Amino acid sequence: MTPDNNGRASDAMKQDLSEAGTHYKAAAVAAGDALKGAASAAGDEMRLGKAQMKAELADGTLSGISAAENLGAAGREQVDALMDKGRDLVESAAELIRERPLASFGIAFATGWLIAKIGSARSDK
Q1: Crossing angle, helix 101-124 and helix 8-99, to 10 degrees?
Q2: HSE (side-chain half, CA atoms, 13 Å) at 18
Q3: Dihedral in degrees, nearest 10, Cα atoms 75, 81, 84, 88
Q4: pLDDT tens per residue, range 61-83
Q5: For residues 46 and 40, what is the distance between their CA atoms, to the nearest angstrom?
Q6: CA-CA distance, 98 to 92, in Å (whole number)?
């Protein structure tokens, strides 16, 4: 049996295959373009992220430096407060000594004697 279409089916098949190849080639080019675009966009996002990271690190460093500067001031405030309390305590003791000199002398003498006893007991060991 001979085909009665005289090779038209073969020609149609070749035409269809050629058209399919053209579409596949176009699809490959489109995929390549998409990958290039994605890589470019990813690169842009990476650069943006890097810039944001650097900005945040710089801001964090400045905040840390500011905290360190404030730490010194806070330390001075605490020392000043302790010095004020110490002065108040000394003034209270001086006032007590002026009001009751004999009692103050007796307490000072007893405290000295007690410290001497404790010191000599430790040196004996």
Answers
A1: 120
A2: 6
A3: -140
A4: 999 888 888 888 888 899 999 99
A5: 10
A6: 10
